[in-house]
Amino acid sequence: MATSHRKETRRKASVLQCFFFFVLGALAMAASMAALHASSSASSSVWRCSPLADDDPSSSQVVDGGGEWGVVRTRGAQFVVGDDGRPFYVNGFNTYWLMVLAVDASTRGKVTEVFRQAAAVGLTVCRTWAFNDGGWRALQKSPSVYDEDVFKALDFVVSEARKHGIRLILPLTNNWDDYGGKAQYVRWAQAAGADVNLTAGGDAFFSDKTARGYFRRHVTAGGGGGRRHVTAVLTRVNTYTGVAYRDDPTIMAWELMNEPRCFSDPTGDTLQAWIREMAFHVKSVDPAHLLGVGSEGFYGRSSSPARLQANPNAGAALVGTDFVRNHRVLGVDFASVHVYPDNWLPAGATQEAQLRFATSWVEAHIADAEGALGGMPVLFAEFGVSAKAGAVFNATSRNAFIEAVYGAMLRSTRRGGGGAGALLWQVFPEDTEYMDDGYAVVLPRAPATAGIVAAHSRRLQAFNSRCEWSCRWGCNRQRNTPEMTKEADVV
């Protein structure tokens, strides 16, 4: 009995010791995770994980944070989600033609397939067109006249994205002739008697009153009233979910235009006035969602000589845009940049030169978003290089370019910086290669690329999750130790 009693006493003591060390370990883990807010730099700025002042309790969580689906917002130079304003770093992709494929029942499944494959490697945001102006399978067949079947296809895209935990960025028209774009609006204005022409490639879209009015009515149900406008994009009620687009947190952001340029006015004044007008118009109807310009990030005539040196070529300063000026407009919530060294650099640029440019281009825009723009998230909404036969890169060496962009983004992420995310151009489901522009990545057929994408997703998710966990302890930003920075690289 005495021996059994001693054994029982030792057993109980052992249990208490285990519990004691478990508690100590948990407290140490909490302290370590709290410190993960900090960057690997020597910055000592404070970053409080406190709620946004105007947070809506109904949109408090996000799927990848383990809770409800909520609207993405900005705080300073970051995207945030949740009542406590947790950082939301983005690893995303472009598949611009989803709406068109969803129209036909025989190809609709490809929408589900690409979302499923993207989600499997941790991609959380998709950028896809919310327009097709005139022409084949047009969403907007003529000003404010829509094809309901095509609108239902866009409804399906939004609904399927939500099912797979993927948010959407939706540009509202195109600078280019593909899918109609600004030139189609000018043609419609001509047909209505406006004194405009297409000699400047559709640039009259930015200044002509009739064309601008058509775009405003396409965006919202306002600006003209009447029953024929009830299907305008922002006020559209999704036939699958019953939720109006402007109320749907699946939509992360709107973009005014894909890659706006105004060659006819290299001063940038014409495009700047259009951005101001349309940003105000969109926000007057949908103040909840984020709004971007959709620009490529070129520095224009209003930029300093030092900034102009960052451009890929001299002509980039003459397309009527300016990265800093365009993103200082009231109502614009984040900066957008594209990265195409193979298209932009002079012919003959080597792989090494293109990789150097990509890294410096990303870093320059992160610095300007944090500095000149007063602390604004910057999203690299398209990045890619062609792997067509004869191109500088092929499907294997392209991985070095993807890793270069991801590396620059991760360096910003580690310090809580303004590099808010990057979206690969572009991800294709299988058996759609007939639409390949040379940039397509079919994830199941590119395991090395898929592995790189998945690894980057895990790194970003580690930061998102650690920030979420530590925010619940009311932590402040502290200086990271080298060990913490190294730990973030382990996935």
From TrEMBL:
BP GO annotations: polysaccharide catabolic process
Coiled-coil residue spans: none
InterPro entries (alphabetical): GH, Glyco_hydro_5, MAN-like
Keyword Nucleotidyltransferase: no
Reactions accelerated catalytically: Random hydrolysis of (1->4)-beta-D-mannosidic linkages in mannans, galactomannans and glucomannans
MF GO annotations: mannan endo-1,4-beta-mannosidase activity
SUPFAM superfamilies reported in the protein's UniProt record: (Trans)glycosidases
Signal sequence coordinates: none
Pfam families membership: GH5_mannosidase
EC number: 3.2.1.78
Annotated Glycoside hydrolase family domain residues: 72-425
Keywords, in A-Z order: Glycosidase, Hydrolase
UniProt similarity note: Belongs to the glycosyl hydrolase 5 (cellulase A) family.
The name this protein goes by in its record: mannan endo-1,4-beta-mannosidase
Organism: Oryza brachyantha
